[in-house]
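Ticket #4471: structure export looks truncated?
Reporter: QA, pipeline team
Priority: medium

Steps to reproduce: submit the single chain below to the structure queue and open the exported record.
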Amino acid sequence: MEQIQQEIRPQQSMKLMKTSTLSTIAICGFLTLSLIHARAIPDPSNAEKIERIFQREREIDAVSDQRQAKLDRRVRPIISALIRGDYAGVDTAATQKDAEALWYIFTEAAARSIGYGDMSRLYPNRKEASAKCDELNKRIAEYVRPKLAAIPGHAKAIGDRLEMMSQEVGYWNYREGALRKLGLLGSMEAIQQIGRFLDDRRNPDEAISLHMIESSRAPPSSNLNGAAYAMVKALGDASPVQLPRSLTLTSSAIDTLQSWWKSDASKPYREWTYETGHPMPPPRPWPVAGVLPPKAPEAVVAVQKTPTVIPSQHTALKPWVLWTLAAAGISLAVLMAMRSRRH
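Actual output as written to the record:
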């Protein structure tokens, strides 16, 4: 009798273990399905917020396109003359302190957008035409840069507009563009304006971040991230950190920049005025967009090539992954149940 009881006890123990396992699997499957169901029901308030951001962006784009078209018509004759080697239009704009026109020409040149059609007609070889276009745009950018930098308020106007855009949704592309422009110019006033946003974590359009990621598009960035990138570009080899080839600054690199800006080391930039110094810092070795800086000296803090950490709210599993996990859990539960019945 004792031998029979000893044989029965292990079998009972095995059944209890199977029952416990099946219960655990069933609970996991139920929780997964509940999570899927919760995700499948959109949050009305968030959906409305996202739609409002995109609607506002469309309205802003429409106004901006009209303004840019008007500015393009005004500046196009100057750009056509620049392609022919006539820089008189830039000199006139500088004399009149026409910062808007000079900003337009400078950003076009920095993006290498001037004269490609003309160079293609002059040089049938695409490689040669591209090289000539790059040379032309670099000459124009280098000619315009000091003239634009010499106009008091040229960067503050951008900073003030950025402040306005940071208080309303829909401007995320324009906020990032404003900081990029300041970083490309790299004037003393531009560096001061970038520093103005180096502690600014505002991101009014953050609600669309998950939508943008799921659409394989870059999500809106905070002013802090944009300012950090712009500051490194503006300072060039004088920056306390350097951009890695991934062009993504780590949080430790951003901390280093913030500490540097608040320290005595940045006083020449923070305390600069038109009355006390030159409007441009020492010449940058890589002023045009698309040209990476030289290797940083040993004394410069290196930026580790680690990927940007996206907040957890933006890294949720996609619905199809959750459905797959749920189906696998339920299938395993059914299989275990069938096997237990056979035994």
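Status: closed, not a bug. The export was complete when the record was re-opened. Leaving a note from the reviewer for reference: The radius of gyration is 30 Å.
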